[in-house]
Design goal:
By secondary structure, this protein is of the alpha+beta class. It has a single domain, classed as Beta Polymerase, domain 2 (2-Layer Sandwich). It contains 7 helices and 7 strands, in the order αβααβαβββααββα. Helix 5 runs antiparallel to helix 6. It is flat and about 80 Å long. One of its GO terms (biological process) is guanosine tetraphosphate biosynthetic process. Pathway: Purine metabolism; ppGpp biosynthesis; ppGpp from GTP: step 1/2. One of its GO terms (molecular function) is kinase activity. This is GTP pyrophosphokinase. It comes from Paenibacillus glacialis.
Length: 248
């Protein structure tokens, strides 16, 4: 049997790795579309969205290979798929802690998504103070030759949690030495302050929402219009009368 020409091998490898990576990219596209729809639905029906913004990322093939070698995993596409679960990552940032669990529930209610693993670093923060909810979600990707199921790691956190985590990463990025105890303690104190701010802002928001709700009850203006796709429409009150007559 003739050995494959090096150029043909390279061409085939490029094709295979491109397809492999594209499946994860498409899984991220699926997740972002779902989150965008949930965000718009919640905003339209509740005049509020628990989702502030999202950010996605794909590990590079080079980064994947380094991790496979470092962990001594099987060097094959199936080995990568079964061993590395964070090739595709989606971060969802929200306003309040309660929003985090609301978003989790919305994702769980998606019939085609399966939550394979959950790590709650909010109820159980890491020793350094890190807080976030991590979900490992299996996502179906529909391709021309069939369906593939791949994992997307979803991190859900508040703005304050994201601020702390982003700066912590910048401070210690590529810092290979042991961190002095004093800095570790200050970092943990900063995380505690961020958590206290989250709790305070949620309490203030709850109070404001109660006041707004009381004001709405005394005004009909709130119920005379609807917002769809950032467009304002007048509520067809005559239609309501016809529907009521039809029920009689």
């Amino acid at each position: 049997m003739n050995a494959q020409h090096p150029m043909e091998q390279l061409k085939q490898f490029k094709h295979d790795i491109t397809r492999f990576m594209m499946v994860y990219k498409f899984a991220l596209d699926e997740m972002e579309t779902k989150v965008d729809i949930l965000k718009e639905e919640f905003q339209s029906l509740h005049d509020y969205s628990p989702i502030e913004h999202t950010k996605s990322r794909l590990k590079s093939p080079e980064s994947i290979m380094k991790k496979m070698i470092r962990k001594n995993y099987e060097l094959s596409f199936e080995g990568i798929k079964s061993s590395i679960k964070d090739i595709a990552g989606l971060r969802i940032t929200c306003s309040f802690i309660s929003d985090i669990y609301r978003i989790r529930e919305m994702l769980q209610n998606q019939s085609d998504l399966i939550i394979l693993e959950e790590k709650d670093y909010i109820k159980n923060p890491k020793p350094n103070g890190y807080q976030s909810l991590h979900l490992l979600i299996e996502v179906p990707v529909f391709l021309s030759d069939g369906v593939e199921h791949v994992c997307v790691e979803v991190q859900i956190r508040t703005i304050a949690m994201d601020f702390w985590a982003s700066l912590e990463h910048k401070i210690f990025y590529k810092y290979n030495q042991s961190v002095p105890e004093r800095l570790t303690q200050e970092l943990k104190a900063a995380a505690d302050s961020a958590n206290a701010l989250d709790l305070q802002m949620e309490r203030l928001n709850d109070e404001i929402q109660e006041i707004k709700e009381a004001q709405r009850e005394g005004s009909m203006d709130e119920f005379n219009r609807i917002m769809i796709n950032n467009q304002q429409f007048h509520l067809p009150v005559d239609l309501l009368k016809l529907l009521n007559e039809g029920d009689e």
